[in-house]
């Protein structure tokens, strides 16, 4: 009898969002003191279970890791430069959701994401900007790459294996921006 190797489920990278949110806030507060271009607001207050359920009635089941963050921070304006991480209100509509939906339609026909296992046409927009070309999408539940996050910035993209990886990477990008600001680079 052929025995297949046992596949372990990958443990979430972030077990408790609170310290990770605090780290992100501290990095952003330090950057705010040096940066005149971007705003660095705090994350929104935690989503209630009712807000999460209402959003899921409209957009479908949320990725469990993204949903778990929303229970602590219901969106984050300017999470990376001028790009907002959507909370439940943005998932349901508004100007940034419209921008993300229009961008998603443009990208859907291109087929450039087929090679990375990301079905953009089924993905949920979780971030956008009204000043930059950046868009963030999370692959749909049931999709082969469920939970992957795509960062599309107009002429390029990056795919993260999970929402946790995406979140930590955005905090690292904020750290890089802070280093640049400390050096006085424009």
Determine and state the CATH class. Alpha Beta
* CATH homologous superfamily title: SMI1/KNR4-like
Q: What is the beta-strand fraction? A: 5-15%
Secondary-structure-derived class: alpha+beta
Domain module tally: 1
Output the strand order for the largest sheet: 1-2-3-4-5-6
**Stretches with pLDDT under 50, minimum 5 residues:** 1-10
CATH architecture: 3-Layer(aba) Sandwich
Number of strands: 6
Shape: globular
CA-atom Rg in angstroms: 17 Å
First-to-last CA distance = 63 Å
Mean pLDDT: 86
Order of SSEs, N→C?
HHHEEHHEEEEH
Figure out the total of helices: 6
Description of the structure:
This protein is of the alpha+beta class and 186 residues long. The chain has a single domain (17-183), classed as SMI1/KNR4-like, CATH 3.40.1580. It is built from 6 helices and 6 strands, in the order H-H-H-E-E-H-H-E-E-E-E-H. The chain has helices at 17-32, 49-59, 64-70, 88-92, 95-108, 163-183; strands at 76-80, 83-85, 124-128, 135-138, 149-152, 157-160. Strands 1-2-3-4-5-6 form a 6-stranded antiparallel sheet, with helices on both faces. A hairpin with a 6-residue loop joins strand 3 (124-128) and strand 4 (135-138). Helix 1 packs parallel to helix 6 (163-183). The longest helix has 21 residues, at 163-183. It is globular, with a radius of gyration of 17 Å. It starts with 16 loop residues before the first helix and ends with a helix.
How is this fold's topology laid out?
Blueprint: H1 17-32, H2 49-59, H3 64-70, E1 76-80, E2 83-85, H4 88-92, H5 95-108, E3 124-128, E4 135-138, E5 149-152, E6 157-160, H6 163-183
Antiparallel strand pairs: 1-2, 2-3, 3-4, 4-5, 5-6
């Amino acid at each position: 009898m052929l025995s297949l190797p046992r596949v372990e489920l990958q443990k979430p990278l972030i077990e408790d969002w609170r310290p990770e949110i605090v780290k992100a806030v501290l990095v952003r507060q330090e950057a705010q003191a040096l940066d005149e271009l971007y705003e660095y607001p705090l994350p929104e207050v935690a989503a209630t279970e009712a807000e999460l359920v209402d959003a899921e009635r409209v957009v479908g089941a949320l990725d469990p890791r993204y949903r778990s963050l929303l229970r602590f921070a219901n969106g984050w304006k300017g999470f990376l430069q001028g790009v907002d991480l959507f909370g439940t209100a943005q998932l349901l509509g508004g100007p940034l959701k419209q921008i993300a939906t229009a961008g998603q339609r443009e990208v859907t026909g291109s087929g450039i994401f087929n090679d990375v296992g990301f079905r953009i046409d089924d993905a949920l927009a979780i971030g956008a900007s009204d000043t930059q070309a950046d868009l963030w999408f999370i692959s749909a539940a049931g999709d082969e790459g469920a939970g992957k996050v795509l960062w599309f910035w107009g002429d390029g993209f990056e795919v993260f294996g999970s929402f946790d990886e995406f979140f930590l990477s955005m905090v690292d990008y904020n750290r890089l921006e802070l280093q640049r600001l400390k050096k006085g680079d424009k």
